[in-house]
Design a protein that fits this description.
alpha/beta, FAD/NAD(P)-binding domain, about 15% strand, Flavocytochrome C3, Chain A, domain 1, four-stranded mixed sheet, Methane Monooxygenase Hydroxylase, Chain G, domain 1, 3 domains, globular, five-stranded parallel sheet
């Protein structure tokens, strides 16, 4: 690995992977020995949501489990939009992917007999959450993959920001334009894989790193790619509400081990709701949101034995609580929903290929058909690792593109990211309605047209949410509470801007972003 690689690469077979979370690292490793340039905005191991993942990796490893059961739980959580063949294929890959990580040295937790210690999370019918370091799975898996990448000579690492995608005369992807230390750099490529993560930091309340503003989605959209199901943003119900930004997370596995959601008087928040404290995330998030709307404070009650075990079983959460001055053995943890995971993304096929020739997407930036309207807990790391070898195989069939055309116009940072975050939080949040969504579209569109990537991505979410006139999974419309016939929504940058233009003609009083 060359962390200071030159920028004159002209190898016809070279692939550029943008992003260095589990999706990017796994894809780069699966592409070996093909030459790969891994473009990352931060040094390896930093700035990625992978390292913050507490829950684990879902895989049917138990004697009482099977991939078919895992696929069935995934379908149930997806609220009618998970594609069965994708769920079955990814679930079937799970055990082998765990074995792959073990071979790379991943330090998964074991029980007294030496078998993998399996946890339970909401909407899973079996204990199948493979974890490492209690609630440190993301960090330890990330460290494992970083070590593997460092030992792979075919992978070069470039610390830079991707600013645009190069295309040839026929529209196929021909490389990437990056920026490092104020200098623009062209990286020619046979294919480009987006592994840039999600968009949670577009919301004022989020568990995501501050850089998670959908940059890869904007790159794809400006290249003409189709985006799918952009409205489905999963709000984690138990972000720790202590005033931090991003918000620390209390893993869902706590409720799998007996923690309960209560109000200030100790009354259960989930009483009378199907699934109770282990209901799907969208159900729990709405219940907390509605309780807070009635003026209630909501807490995660781990007091007693679970709180006493927390430093050993959930050391990350225990540390977060200690930092906030909370003793979970004696005090309930204040929580609230926060933007956590994006189920929509760049529309891809079974090989991870987008609608633009030579452009692939892996991980949270992609819409593979696995998550549907509501991601099943701990399926995200699994999905990224499952698609990595399928993408690597498909890249071999991509023809070498022609000469790159002139560079795209550079995008610009958000003029006021705090304003965008407020709009998304208040108008495109846990509960939505038509007037608020239309206001969001009108306010975001001018900045999106002017080249602001954050506004562009927010606009795509808002327009897709406005077009879905039903409530399904993580998308809840108070003015359309019923479900309609299951369907995907698809949009392009041109279509999102056209809808915004039509709305602008009907209302002129909504101020745009400065």
């Amino acid at each position: 690995m060359n962390a200071h690689a030159p920028f004159s690469f002209a190898t016809p077979d070279r692939v550029v992977v943008i992003g260095a979370g589990v999706a990017g690292l796994a894809t780069a490793l699966r592409l070996a020995p093909r030459p790969v340039t891994l473009v990352t905005a931060s040094p390896l191991g930093f700035g990625t949501a992978t390292g913050w993942a507490q829950g684990g990796i879902a895989a049917a490893m138990g004697a009482d489990d099977a991939p078919s059961l895992h696929a069935a739980d995934t379908l149930a959580a997806g609220a009618g939009l998970t594609e069965r063949d994708v769920a079955e294929r990814v679930a079937a890959a799970g055990p082998g992917l765990i074995d792959w990580l073990v071979a790379l040295g991943a330090p998964f937790d074991r029980d007294a007999s030496g078998a993998l210690a399996l946890g339970l999370e909401a909407a899973h019918s079996r204990r199948r959450i493979v974890r490492a370091g209690g609630d440190s799975t993301g960090r330890l898996v990330l460290e494992t993959l970083v070590r593997a990448v460092a030992a792979t000579p075919s992978i070069d690492v470039v610390v830079a920001h991707a600013r645009g995608l190069l295309r040839d005369a026929h529209g196929a992807i021909a490389g990437v334009v990056c920026e490092r230390d104020g200098t623009r750099l062209r990286l020619p490529a046979r294919a480009v894989v987006l592994a840039t993560g999600g968009l949670g930091a577009l919301y004022a309340s989020t568990t995501n790193p501050r850089g998670a503003t959908g940059a890869g989605l904007a790159l794809a959209a400006r290249a003409g790619a189709t985006l799918r199901d952009m409205e489905f943003v999963q709000f984690h119900p138990t972000a720790i509400a202590v005033g931090a930004d991003p918000m620390p997370l209390a893993t869902e596995a706590l409720r799998g081990e007996g923690a309960r959601l209560v109000d200030a008087d100790g009354a259960p928040i989930m009483a009378g709701i199907a699934g109770g404290d282990l209901a799907p995330r969208d159900v729990v998030a709405r219940a907390i949101f509605q309780a807070q709307g009635r003026g209630a404070s909501v807490f995660l009650d781990c007091r007693g034995a679970l709180g006493a075990r927390m430093p050993a079983r959930f050391p990350t959460v225990a540390g977060l609580c200690a930092t906030a001055g909370i003793d979970p053995q004696r005090q309930a943890i204040p929580v609230r929903p926060a933007a956590h995971y994006h189920m929509g993304g760049v529309k891809v096929d079974a090989a991870g290929a987008s609608t633009v020739p030579g452009l692939f997407a892996c991980g949270e930036v992609a819409s593979t058909g696995l998550h549907g309207a509501n991601r099943l807990a701990s399926n995200s790391l699994l999905e990224a690792m499952a698609f990595a070898p399928w993408i690597a195989e498909a890249v071999a069939a991509v023809p070498v593109p022609g000469p790159a055309q002139p560079e795209p116009e550079p995008t610009r940072p958000a003029t006021d990211l705090s304003a965008i975050r407020t709009i998304m939080e208040t108008r495109v949040g846990v509960v939505r309605e038509a007037d608020g969504l239309a206001q969001a579209v009108r306010r975001l569109a001018p900045a999106a047209r002017a080249g602001c990537d954050a506004a562009l991505v927010g606009l795509a979410v808002a327009t897709s949410a406005l077009s879905r006139r039903e409530s399904r999974g993580a998308h809840w419309r108070s003015d359309c509470p019923d479900q309609a016939t299951p369907r995907h929504t698809e949009t392009t940058l041109a279509e999102a801007l056209a809808l915004a233009e039509a709305l602008a003609l009907t209302e002129t009083a909504t101020p745009a972003l400065a």
